[in-house]
Amino acid sequence: MNIVSRVQFPKTAEISDLYFKLSNDVSINFKEDKKQFILHKDTIISLNTYFNSLYEKYYTKYTYINSLYYLLRLEGNFEVFAYRETSEAITREVIFNQSFKDCKISDYAKFCLPKLKHDQEAGRIYLEITCLSQQGLFTEGLVVTEQEKHRDVSLAIITCTFKKEVYVKKTVNTILQDNLLQYKHFKIFVVDNGVTLNTSDFKDYKFKLIYNRNVGGSGGFTKGLIEALQEDIYTHFLFMDDDIEIDSEAIYRLFSLYEYAKKDFAVAGSMLDLYKKHILYEAGAIYNKSIDDEGNIKQDKFTGYPLKHNLDLRNTITLTSLLLEDNIDYGGFWFFAFPKEIVERIGLLLPLFIKIDDMEFGLRINEHFDNGIVAFPSIAVWHEPFYAKRPIWDSYYHIRNHLITNSIHSSLEYVKTVKIFTQSILYSLCIFDYNSAQMVIKGFEDYMQGPNFITNNYPEILHSKIYELSKSYKNQTILVNSVLRSEFYQVTKAGTFQKIVTLLTLNGHLVPQFIIADESVIIRVSVKEEERDSICKGLAKKRIIYVIDENPNSYQYEFDQKAGLNILFTWFNSAIRSCLRWSSVSAEWKKAFNDLTSMQFWQEYLELQK
Asked: Per the database record, which ranges form the Galactofuranosyltransferase GlfT2 N-terminal domain (predicted)?
C-alpha cells in the first residue's frame, strides 16, 4: 500500500471552501490537533474543491498510476459517491457509489475507484459523503494505490531568504512536523543572504542553514543547489521562495508524482493570492507573449504573462477548466521542482540577482525536455501578489534581465527595443515618475556593458547603488492609504486633441513654467480599460496622485521640468550611442551564456573556492 495523497483539511475557516463544500448542518472542529467533521442525518461533505479533487487527467498522462482507492476514517452510517467531470462533458458522471454501516473511527472504510481513464475521457474526480445515521464523524482520508513505486525519490528543498525570518521558520516547521513526510527522503537547505537566522532555531537533521553574501535570489538558490549537489544523494530539487504560506501536502504530492513518473519533468507550483486566498493568481506563465481579450496569444516583448490568472477557485466550473493544459514557458520560484538530470543537461541559474531568473531557467528546460514544465492542479502555495509590490528599483532588474534573457533565447531588434523603452520612459515622465524612468535607462545602459558587467561587479554593492539611485528624485510621496476607493468615482477619458497636446508637450514639460497650475489630479490605473483614467488629466498640473487598483498604496508625484527634460536627453543620448554596438553586445551575452551558468563560474562568483 502506497499513499499517493491525502484529503486535506483547512487550517482556518477562512479558506475552508478550497477544501470542502458542506451542507448547512455540518461543522468542523478547528481546535483539535486532529480536525474532525461532525455530521447529522442527510448532511453532505463534498470534496468537489481545488485541494481535494483528484486530477485524474494529470495522473494518467504523467505517471503510471491507474488504480486508486480511498481510505476514510468514518463513524456512523454513510453513503459515498464518486463523480467525474471532464472538460468535454456538460454534466457530472457518477462513476461509483458504496454504502458503509456501523463505521468506527479506529478502522478505515475502503472506497475503490474504477480504473483511471486516459486522454479525453479522463477528468477530475471527487467524492461526496452523505451521513445516514443520526450523527457521524469524518476525520481522515487517504488516496492509496497498490502499485509499486517506479523509483525512490530524494528531494533537496532549497529556500533563499533575506530577512524573512518569520516566514522561513513557519515554512520549515510546517514541513518538518508533517508525520507522513517523515517517511520520505528529503532535506531542507535554507540559504540566508541576510545572515539573520540562527542554527539554534532549527534542530533537525533534515535541515541545513547556509550563510551567504547577498547575491540575490539567483545566487542564493544556486548556492543551495551546489551544496545539495555536493551531497550527491538527491534525485530532485525544489526551489521555494522565503515569503510563502504552504501546506506540506503540496510537497507530499510532489513526491508521488516523481515516484510514479513516466518521464521526468519540472513542476511549477501554482501561486494563490495571499490577500485573497481563494484566488488563483498564476499556474505557470508564458514569456514574450500575452493573451488578448479573445484568448488569442500574441507576441509581446519583455513580458511574462500569467496563465490561469485571477480565477476564483470556489467555482466548480473553474476547477474543471484546470484540466485544459497550457504550454508553459516557465514557473515562478515560489515553488518550482525539477530533476537532477535538468541540472546535468542545462547547467545552473543565470546570475541575474533577482527577476527573470525563473523565466530564463524555464526557457532552457523547455528547450531540452519533452514534458517540459507541468502546473499540476492542487500543488500550490500562497504568495504575496505582485499588485501589492512596487519598489522602484525593481524596474532596473526587470529591464536589464529581460534584455539579457532575450539576447540569449530570442532576437533583439534595436529599433523595436528602443521604441518600447522610449514609450515606457515617456509614460513615466508624463506621470512625473522620474525615478522609474531613470531605472529603465540604467537597466538599458548596464545591459549594454556586456557580460563583463556581471563578473566585474559585486551584486550586493551594485544593488546598494541601484537602491540609492531609485530614490535620487525626491518628488515622490507614498500615501499609505489610497485616496480612491469609491464606486462613484468618475473615470476621465481624453479626446484626440488633448492626447496630441499631451504628447507634444510631454504633459507640460515643454511649456513655460508659469502655465503649470498648482493643482493635484488623481489618475486611476486599472486592468480594465473602461475603468482607467487618461494620463492627459495631468497636463499642466503640479501634482499627480497615481492610484493603482488593489495596490495598498497610492503615489503622489510632483512636476519637475528640469528633471523631466534631463532624463529625456539622457535617454536619447544613450539610445543613439548604443546603435553601433547593439549587435555585438547581444552576441557577447549569447557567447558568455554557457560560462555564466557553469559550476566553475558560480564557484568563483560565490567565492566557494576560498
From this structure: 5-134
Cα(471)–Cα(461) distance, integer angstroms: 16
Map out the domains of the chain as residue ranges.
Answer: 2-145, 154-388, 394-578
Q: What is the pLDDT of residues 293-302, one digit of tens each?
A: 667 788 888 8
**What are the cell numbers at 90?**
456538460
Q: What CATH architecture is 154-388?
A: Alpha-Beta Complex (3.90)
Strands 236-240 and 154-161: parallel
Q: Are strands 124-131 and 54-55 parallel, antiparallel or unpaired?
A: antiparallel
| Number of residues that make up the chain | 610
| pLDDT score recorded for residue 120 | 86
Handedness of CA 602, 604, 609, 610 (dihedral sign): negative
> Residue 299: phi, psi to the nearest 5?
-70, 135
For residue 601, how far is the Cα from the chain centroid? 28
Identify whether the C-beta of residue 302 lies closer than 8 Å to the C-beta of residue 408. no
75: phi > 0 → left, psi -120 to 50 → alpha, else beta; which? beta
pLDDT value at residue 463 = 96
Cell of 455: 563578473
CA distances from 167 to 175, 207, 212 (A): 13, 16, 18
Grid cell, residue 585, equals 553586445
Identify the segments of the chain with pLDDT beneath 70. 30-33, 293-294, 480-488, 609-610
Instruction: Give me Rg for the CA atoms of the chain.
Output: 27
Buried residues in 518-539 as b, exposed as e (16+ CB within 10 A): eeebbbbeeeeeeebbbbbbbb
* CA nearest neighbour of 549 among 525, 572, 567: 525
Q: Rounded distance, CA 454 to CA 397, Å?
A: 12
State the pLDDT at residue 552. 78
Q: Which residue is it, cell 490561469?
A: 308
CA 153 – CA 159 distance, rounded (Å): 19
CA distance 226 to 224: 5
- Where do we find the cell 531609485? 470
What's this model's pTM, rounded to 2 decimal places?
A: 0.94
CATH superfamily to which 2-145 belongs = Galactose-binding domain-like (2.60.120.260)
Q: What residues contact residue 179 under an 8 Å CB cut-off, 6+ apart?
A: none
Q: Give the amino acid at 537.
A: K
CB 275, CB 385: distance < 8 Å: yes
Angle at 571 between CA 565 and CA 576, to 5 degrees: 130
Residues 191 and 212: beta-carbon distance below 8 Å: yes
